[in-house]
Amino acid sequence: MGRSTVDDDVAPALELRGVRAAYGRIEVLRGVDLVVPHGCVFALLGPNGGGKTTTLNVINGRLPPTQGCVHIGGVHVNGASTARLARAGVCSVPEGRGVFPNLTVDENLLLATYSTDERSADEIRARAFARFPRLGERRNQVAGTLSGGEQQMLAMARALTVDPSLLLLDELSMGLAPVIVEGLYEAVADLAREGITILLVEQFARMALPVADYAGIMVHGRIAVVGEPGDLAGDLDAAYLGGSAA
Fold first, then answer.
1. Which residues touch 239 (CB under 8 Å, ≥6 apart)?
2. For 33-62, what is the mean pLDDT?
3. In DSSP terms, which residues pair with 75 in a beta bridge?
4. Is the pLDDT at 7 greater than 60, yes or no?
5. How does the average pLDDT of the chain come out, rounded?
6. Pairing outcome for strands 166-170 and 90-93
7. Distant-in-sequence, close-in-space partners of 3: CB < 8 Å, separation ≥ 6
8. Other C-beta atoms lying within 10 Å of the C-beta of residue 62
9. How high is the pLDDT of residue 8?
10. d(CA 185, CA 200)
């Protein structure tokens, strides 16, 4: 698990206060309160339609909140562009991976050099292939022909080129075999040990809980309960049996 840091004198890595958000007239978030300490893995869980991905979209600047406040490291960031948030250390791996399917693994990583002036293409490749050796084996393969797990590795490798302080992961396990997911979550645990704060959204709770320091269960646009993973078994059963599946 991550190096959870709780210090009353230090602003949390991420804080949402009374956040509401909507798509047109459809309100999805109905007062979200969330605190994520530095250096931990926080798993945001719950059934489909609960508002998990919308919460990530508010944090990463893709969807402005209609009410409430978002703070990154104690700084109010409502209205900040995705580019400004990226410079502040916020990076996302979206649902569906978001790689460039017509480019090779190498070319996908090369594009990341345009977002940082600090590392050469060779250094970016070396770090990516050390973390995900399978990408090195397929460096000349077109990304669209990779397996789903390999595409997810590539998406994570690209995100890590900017040394994020806050990494947002959306449905890491979607469409993947359990053995592949296990390896990806091992990589998540490694990142947390390196000090990166991670907020991950996951529908399949049992996949995420083993690497999480804290977890929250989201139902009907609100976070119903927050706690340590071992304390939430009963709440998870209730949420998935009674939560919205829309």
1. 45, 46, 47, 50, 217, 219, 224
2. 94
3. 72
4. no
5. 88
6. parallel
7. 39, 40, 192, 193, 195
8. 14
9. 52
10. 10
Greatest pairwise CA separation for the chain in angstroms: 51
Among 120-129, 158-167, 232-241, the least confident range: 232-241
pTM: 0.89
Q: What is the DSSP letter of 24?
A: T
25-43 average pLDDT score:
96
Contact 235, 224 (CB under 8 A): yes
Long-range contacts made by residues 215-219, C-beta under 8 angstroms, separation at least 24? 215/42, 215/43, 215/44, 215/45, 216/34, 216/42, 216/43, 216/44, 216/45, 217/45, 217/46, 218/32, 218/44, 218/45, 218/46, 218/50, 218/51, 218/52, 218/55, 219/46, 219/47, 219/50, 219/243, 219/244
Place of tokens 């050796």: 133
Residue 16, number of CB atoms within 10 A of its CB: 21
CA distance 124 to 5: 29
Phi and psi, residue 165, nearest 5°:
-95, -25
Determine the pLDDT at residue 113.
Answer: 66
DSSP letters, 174-195, are: TT--HHHHHHHHHHHHHHHHTT
Torsion of the alpha carbons at 1, 128, 206 and 21, rounded to the nearest 10: 100
User: Strand 222-227 relative to strand 214-219: parallel, antiparallel, unpaired?
Assistant: antiparallel
Handedness of CA 80, 86, 91, 92 (dihedral sign): positive
Cα–Cα distance measured from residue 4 to residue 228, given in angstroms and rounded to the nearest whole number:
11
If we measure between CA atoms, which residue out of 12, 99, 109, 16 comes closest to residue 57? Answer: 16
